[in-house]
Design brief:
By secondary structure, the chain is an all-beta fold. The chain is about 0% helix and about 30% strand. The chain is built from no helices and nine strands. The chain is globular and about 45 Å long. About 15% of the residues are buried.
């Protein structure tokens, strides 16, 4: 029985603390696809689960909309970030509008937005007032079923009873 012999109880082993911190490697997540003005009128294919970020360089753009929010869903409200850098005058639209969308299901969806001003008291010319990009959401590739490591061995013939 422990503790009845009169001998001292054994000391538990010391726990080692690593002297060098360990770093976990991040697991790759769904992709982030950033689209800007150069995507206007074009098309892009993304996998289900991807985040599509629309980044437009003018605060005059209205909130971008998805033609199928069930398949390409907005992630919160768009962010309008005015800029006050060199050459930016108040009312000139300097800055960005950013909107994130989550690709939820396979579909072909249009992201659209419009603006009426392209600068301080400057109406947009044809082709500058509308933005449209087609987003083709592909289904996530399925993982093929794994096959057994070795085929099952054929059954042995029954042994007759004596």
């Amino acid at each position: 029985m422990a503790g009845c012999s009169g001998a001292p109880a054994p000391t538990p082993p010391a726990t080692a603390t690593p002297t060098h911190p360990t770093t976990a490697r991040p697991t790759p997540g769904p992709p982030l696809v950033v689209l800007g003005e150069q995507a206007n009128g074009g098309s892009v294919t993304v996998p289900t689960g991807a985040t599509v970020r629309l980044l437009l360089h003018s605060t005059f753009w209205a909130a971008p909309r998805s033609s199928a929010p069930g398949s390409l869903a907005p992630l919160g409200a768009p962010d309008s970030a005015p800029s006050s850098g060199p050459g930016c005058r108040p009312g000139s639209g300097c800055g960005t509008v950013t909107a994130d969308f989550l690709a939820r299901a396979a579909a072909t969806v249009r992201l659209t937005t419009t603006r009426t001003s392209c600068g301080e008291a400057l109406r947009c010319r044809p082709g500058q007032a509308d933005f449209t990009v087609t987003v083709v959401i592909s289904p996530v590739p399925s993982i093929p079923p794994t096959s057994p490591a070795s085929p099952a061995s054929p059954a042995s013939p029954p042994v007759p009873a004596p």
